Amino acid sequence: TTALYIVPTPIGNLDDISTRALDVLKHVNLIACEDTRHSGKLLSHFGIETRKTALHDHNERDRAKWIVSQLAEGHSVALISDAGTPLISDPGYHLVNHVREAGHRVIPLPGACAAITALSGSGLPSDRFSFEGFLPAKEKSRLDKLNALKEDPRTLIFYESPHRIVHSLESIVTAFGSEREIVMARELTKTFETFLSGSAADVLQTVKDDANQQRGEIVLMCHGYRSEETSEFSPVVIDTLKILCQELP
Ligand code: SAM
After folding, report:
1. Ligand 1 touching residue 189 (CB < 6 A)
2. Distance 189 CA to ligand 1 centre (A)
3. Among the four 102, 125, 128, 197, which has the fewest Cβ within 10 Å?
4. Is 160 in the pocket of ligand 1 (CB under 6 A)?
5. Which positions ≥6 away from 217 have C-beta within 8 Å?
6. What is the Cα–Cα distance from 190 to 84, expressed in whole angstroms?
7. What is the mean pLDDT of the chain?
8. How far apart are CA 87 and CA 96, in angstroms?
9. Is the pLDDT confidence value at 231 over 70?
10. Is the C-beta atom of 90 inside 6 A of ligand 1?
């Protein structure tokens, strides 16, 4: 079927591409890449010779119209980004929106995503979470954003860049307090994969003291807000007290 396929690519380990993804990339008429040179390396590694076109933040709206015209002519298209799942802090939203409005099929493939990979290994509650993308670069906007999230009970997930990690951790200590539990996942699926966890103040200190912790790709996660009643006694203690109360005369 003629369709726009949304195809995740690895976030480090090349073995994380699916056989279905390789099959789609091989058989579509065109691959829309965030960066054709970057993706060229990945595609040639897998022996994929499909024609490429660039689709990035600066040309997405124009290119979307042209891609719709390609679909109208019966040509299937795959969208990939530099790494991970397209549209997740990456281009593609305008394209998918436009393609759907034009009445064409959109077929998303599941695959690598740094946020989900990080969350699943973090040890933080995963029943409810909020993906917040990148924190603002300017301190004032960053603190405004964090203050608005301060009492959110869900696990919060942020993407980070290595040169801003210390500033972001400092803002988290300021907005959420030094005791908020956080987990920093670095270089996921790669040789130097590291998880750092502890209080916001402790993680900040560790990252400040060790320049290696400021390198590579980073996902930052914060435990959600715990109201007074639940933070004073852990759920285990509360459950134990309930059982004791039932047993007492
Ligand atoms: N679309 C991608 C995805 O599905 O995860 C995210 C693209 S976004 C432009 C890049 C950010 O994702 C990085 O700054 C980092 O926060 C996170 N990221 C990507 N790969 C990662 C990895 N291997 N380990 C940790 N974080 C990673």
Report:
1. yes
2. 11
3. 128
4. yes
5. 11, 12, 114, 162, 186, 187, 188
6. 14
7. 95
8. 9
9. no
10. yes
Model confidence at 238, in pLDDT bands (50, 70, 90)? Answer: confident
pTM: 0.91
Q: Which amino acid is at 16?
A: D
Helix (H) or strand (E) holding 84: none
Instruction: Please report the pLDDT score of residue 228 as a whole number.
Output: 65
pLDDT tens per residue across span 152-203: 999 999 999 999 999 999 999 999 999 999 999 999 999 999 999 999 999 9
Contacts of 124 (CB under 8 A, 6+ apart): 155, 181, 183, 221, 223
Strands ordered across the beta sheet of 77-80: 51-54, 30-33, 77-80, 3-6, 105-108
Q: Is 220 a pocket residue for ligand 1 (Cβ < 6 Å)?
A: no
- Which residue has a Cα nearest atom 19 of ligand 1? 114
Q: E strands, the chain, where?
A: 3-6, 30-33, 51-54, 77-80, 105-108, 129-134, 155-160, 181-186, 194-199, 218-222
Please work out whether the CB of residue 113 comes within 6 Å of at least one atom of ligand 1.
Answer: yes
Is the ipTM higher than 0.90? The answer is: yes
Contact 115, 130 (CB under 8 A): no
- CB of 222 closer than 8 Å to CB of 176: yes
What is the residue type of 104?
H
State yes or no: pLDDT of 139 exceeds 70.
yes
The amino acid occupying position 102 is: A
